[in-house]
Amino acid sequence: MADSKWGSIEAVVNGDLIGVPADASYISVILMWLLLLLNLIQGLLGGLIKPVFVFFSIGSAHLCCTTKYGSAIGSVLAGRPCLMAWTWWRYVLCALVALVANGKSRLALFMWEWEAFGKGSWWWHGEGVWCWSYADCQRILKADQVRKVAFGAIKACVPDLYPKNLLIFLPSGAGTQWASIRSLVHELFLDNGTETYAARMAELPQKLSGDWASPKLEHLSDFVRVQTSVSKCLFFMLFGKWVTDDEATMLTGWRTNAKFWILPRMVHRFLFNIGIGKVKALRVKTIRLIEKYNLQEVFVGMNDRLPAEYRRADVVELCDEVMFAIGFAGIGGTCAAVESVGAFLQCKIPAESAAKHILWGEYGTSQKMVAKYRESPEKYIRETLRMDPPVTSATSALKEATTVKMDGRDFQLPAGTLNQYVVSMANRDPSVFPDPDTFNPDRGNLNEALTWNGAFGASDEASYPRICPGRYLSMDLTRTIVGHVLGANEASA
């Protein structure tokens, strides 16, 4: 293949920045540093005191003009001008303080914010409005979505952190770029009904045994071992190559760098772009791995099959987009799933989970947990991930102008405003899942959990257009790795 057709991954990740808000300029970042002490004081107050957090987010009805000129929502609706950068200096710090104060758990943070805003249907975080109920999340998930280049209700950093045409940024619908790419990704990599998929899955237990001898339950708390195993298994299932230990360690960066995904450009620049540098290096190394194993033709063929208007001039750009999705969702999400199941099996609260909202119920010992897992691995995994999902929320956008009530006030939001739907809270909606904080793999409606961006296994599963295309592979890998540790692979096979 000609290098001119493949292109340069360095050129992709070092391309011109897109959509940088004025308040994230270097002048703004320098002022943020100069006023750091004042910003920290405000950040501590906002991150620990709920009414202050609400005030920083949406202002107050009792203080004239604070919503329009002195809040995060006011800045967003004004286009995030540099003159209002100060509202974001304090806001990003108070959000960080609140996250740390809630045990670094995203779910615990979301629930804290929801409570701060009065436990209603909506609240504000970042650059968007958030909703949580099962009914609202299901309504969004069952329709085609307007999407923007945003993650965690924050404008995403492209093309240095994220690829600009990443699948999660593309609006869905028949005939769209999203539909064309998703269809090919499923056909080429994720179709669990093919002979290739079945043959590779059958080989996994033996390959795991060669790398991971004499496994013990406590080994599931060794995240380095778990993450390298997930990386090797997933790359093998997709490409038929069992990577080396060093290569697997590199791929674990898709899990360990997760903390950088949600940061706005202002914060990345405040931190000297260290996180962006790490992710850029990871993207380059991942493409180098594809090149080492001579897998470029897979992506050349994929690009050739796209409609002409969606083809990339340089195939490496498409490869980077697909590998980012595989790394971000496939490796990162499956690592999180195995880590959570491993913790539950030992009656440990997973790291960065909503500890106050996890009760063991009838399964208060590791022995009872293991016995319950052996009874039905799939039910056990589904219930674990209902309570501690790898993906806690996703970013859509309002299709039309919408009036929402937050903290007792009505807000008129224009079409296109970012709208985050929180599947981790929908999975705990008591109107759908009674006693939601208690672990119970015998729930009759586990297939209704929205863990995989849709109701995986429900009778209407097909009505969720953006349901995770890799859900079967993630479930199979989680079951295989945990089964290896518990000695269950032979029995389950």
Low-confidence runs of at least 5 consecutive residues: 489-493
Structural class: alpha+beta
Taking the sheet with the most strands, its summary is: 4 strands, mixed
> Could you tell me the strand content as a percent range?
5-15%
Rounded mean pLDDT score: 96
Count every helix, treating DSSP H or I runs of 4 or more residues as helices: 24
Categorize the overall geometry: globular
N→C terminal distance: 41 Å
| Number of E strands | 8
* Radius of gyration based on Cα positions: 23 Å
Output the strand order for the largest sheet: 1-2-8-5
Measured as a percent range, the helix fraction is 40-55%
What does this structure look like?
It is a single chain. Strand 6 (402-406) and strand 7 (409-413) form a beta hairpin. It is globular, with a radius of gyration of 23 Å. Strands 1-2-8-5 form a four-stranded mixed β-sheet. Strands 3-4 form a two-stranded antiparallel sheet. Strands 6-7 form a two-stranded antiparallel ribbon. The chain has 493 residues and is α+β, with helices and mostly antiparallel strands. The protein contains 24 helices and eight strands. Residues 489-493 have low confidence and may be disordered.
Fold topology:
Blueprint: H1 3-6, H2 9-13, H3 26-34, H4 36-48, H5 50-58, H6 66-69, H7 72-77, H8 85-101, H9 106-116, E1 122-125, E2 128-131, H10 134-141, E3 150-151, E4 154-155, H11 177-190, H12 195-211, H13 223-239, H14 245-251, H15 253-256, H16 265-270, H17 274-292, H18 296-305, H19 315-345, H20 366-375, H21 377-387, E5 394-397, E6 402-406, E7 409-413, E8 418-421, H22 423-426, H23 471-486, H24 489-492
Helix pairs in contact: 4-5, 4-8, 5-9, 12-13, 12-23, 13-14, 13-19, 13-23, 18-19, 19-21, 19-23, 20-21
